[in-house]
Write a structure and sequence with these properties.
This protein has eight helices and no strands. By secondary structure, it is mostly helical.
């Protein structure tokens, strides 16, 4: 992937980070509020109902505005044309280059995930596979406590509150993470010493 292909991906990541860090409060609040509203709506209504009502509300707004502008032009005897002309004349087609570029990125991520899963399930590294097993075991408890939609809501709240919280309490959080990492590495080191066939990874 050349530099030209990497640039749109970098811009997209930068935009997402700016939203999550609340650099533009209005934009972040709009994205967070609308996303949270949609997820909370999904807890009460089906996705088909939400999409239908949202599309109906949008259509009602555009039809009302179209009729209003038509009546206003008739009263004023003006000829301003269609109120949505600038949008109708805009080219919204996806370019084949953009589709191919993003398809290559998605395919690369999928292939990487498949290779990692193969490595873990076929026990290429015993310790990594054991850590993966512990993670799956934790997920069984998480799944019994929350459904997927609840996890999405919590993930959204965490994504928008985590970065700003980290920036305000970075020193304390870094110290806590460093302490936890040291304890985890100590436990894993003891396990690697006792398990046959578990080779310690070079630092």
């Amino acid at each position: 992937m050349d530099l030209a292909d990497q640039q749109p991906s970098a811009d997209w990541k930068h935009t997402v980070l700016q939203l999550l860090r609340w650099r533009d409060v209005r934009s972040s609040a709009l994205v967070f509020g609308s996303s949270l509203f949609i997820l909370l709506s999904l807890t009460c209504y089906s996705i088909i109902s939400i999409l239908s009502y949202s599309a109906l509300a949008l259509l009602s707004g555009t039809v009302s505005f179209r009729v209003y502008r038509g009546v206003l032009q008739a009263i004023q005897k003006s000829d301003e044309g269609h109120p949505f002309r600038c949008v109708l004349e805009k080219d919204l087609a996806l370019s084949s280059e953009a589709v191919q570029r993003h398809s290559d990125v998605v395919l690369s991520r999928i292939n990487g995930a498949l290779k990692e899963l193969r490595r873990l399930f076929l026990v290429e590294d015993l310790v990594d596979s054991l850590k993966f097993g512990v993670l799956l075991w934790v997920f069984t408890y998480v799944g019994s406590w929350f459904n997927g939609l609840t996890l999405l809501i919590l993930g959204l709240i965490g994504a928008f509150s985590g970065p700003i919280t980290y920036e305000k309490h970075q020193t304390q959080i870094d110290q806590f993470i460093s302490s936890v990492n040291s304890q985890v590495k100590g436990v894993l080191g003891k396990i690697q010493e006792k398990l046959p066939g578990a080779k310690k990874k070079p630092e």
